[in-house]
Amino acid sequence: MAEIRGNKVSFNSNNLILTAGATSANETLMFCLANPGEAFLLPTPYYPGFDRDLKWRTGVEIVPIQCTSSNGFRITESALEEAYQQAQNRNLEVKGVLVTNPSNPLGISLSRHELNLLLSFIAAKGIHLISDEIYSGTVFNSKGFVSIMEVLMNKKYVNSPVWDRVHMVYSLSKDLGLPGFRVGAIYSNDKMVVDAATKMSSFGLVSSQTQYLLSAMLSDKKFTKNYVIENRKRLKQRHAMLIRGLKNAGIPCLESNAGLFCWVDMGHLLSSKTFEAEMELWKKIVYQVGLNISPGSSCHCVEPGWFRMCFANMSEQTLDLAMQRIKSFADSISDSNNISRNQQHSNKNSRRKSFSKWIFRLSFHDRETER
């Protein structure tokens, strides 16, 4: 964890609790920090699985922090305050904020300004902050990644009330490509949370065999260092390949620097600016084009037309074929839209001509009547 964060942060192993993946870690934190009927604030768009992980068994409510494309889906002070007020209007007690850094589905890491904003917000409200950092090792460009723990130390929050209210989730699923091993972790400076989460981890243990194997793997410093470097290199190359293919198809996307996916804007391909049209387009892409992408509405995006497109789980040949299919599909929709616009224009001209003839006949009839 320290190495992936550039050794800018040190961790105390006594504050670490192993869980059966990040899913179990997030749910355990919900059980520790909130009661049924209380709320956590989450910036949109967010990982669709949080509706399951955070709510199903805990009874916790999710209140969205509405982020929009106008500022690249960045978290703002006004959006935080509006979400907090919305929760109060619903008579929900807010227990904290949960963010993913880097973001799933946006593929962007939170800026230092956003992290400082979040710390100031939870300090003012007396609530918790959970930073899910399972994509921290997938940052592939120079913008880099800043962990909430780094900001927490730099802001001199050590041993303050805020120090105990910031918790981190981590996993080996993304950084080492081991989702099937189900190895996640909670890191917290709060002894009560550590004690409670340790007891609850009995319901989601990591097997002894898995721990033994991973212990041997992670002890090979040369392997792990080379793996992370090579992984970032390949992600950067594959990301660039996707961006070129989308650009060639006339499809823009959010500028990203991390993750295994891109946040793609297909709003211009919608039949109308509605979520119904978004689902209609998604079904065409799945059933006609043969590509499985995620519609923005499943991530609670407030703007129709955005989609999450994964690029790291396939070969270059498969990705190249996918881009060819997307381009053909986008071109066909553009052609049909042009034909439709031309027909509408032609119909308008026909109506104008018919209307002119009708006016002429009417005026001629009036003159004959006057005679």
TrEMBL record:
InterPro entries reported for this sequence: Aminotransferase_I/II_large, Ethylene_sulfur-biosynth, NHTrfase_class1_PyrdxlP-BS, PyrdxlP-dep_Trfase, PyrdxlP-dep_Trfase_major, PyrdxlP-dep_Trfase_small
Top EC class, one word: lyase
Catalytic activity: S-adenosyl-L-methionine = 1-aminocyclopropane-1-carboxylate + S-methyl-5'-thioadenosine + H(+)
Keywords annotated in UniProt: Ethylene biosynthesis, Fruit ripening, Lyase, Pyridoxal phosphate, S-adenosyl-L-methionine
A Pfam family: Aminotran_1_2
Location of the Aminotransferase class I/classII large domain: 5-326
Keyword Lyase: yes
Pathway(s) per entry: Alkene biosynthesis; ethylene biosynthesis via S-adenosyl-L-methionine; ethylene from S-adenosyl-L-methionine: step 1/2
Cofactor: pyridoxal 5'-phosphate
GO BP term, pick one: ethylene biosynthetic process
SUPFAM superfamilies given in the database record: PLP-dependent transferases
Gene3D superfamilies (UniProt xref): Aspartate Aminotransferase, domain 1 (3.90.1150.10), Type I PLP-dependent aspartate aminotransferase-like (Major domain) (3.40.640.10)
Protein name, UniProt field: 1-aminocyclopropane-1-carboxylate synthase
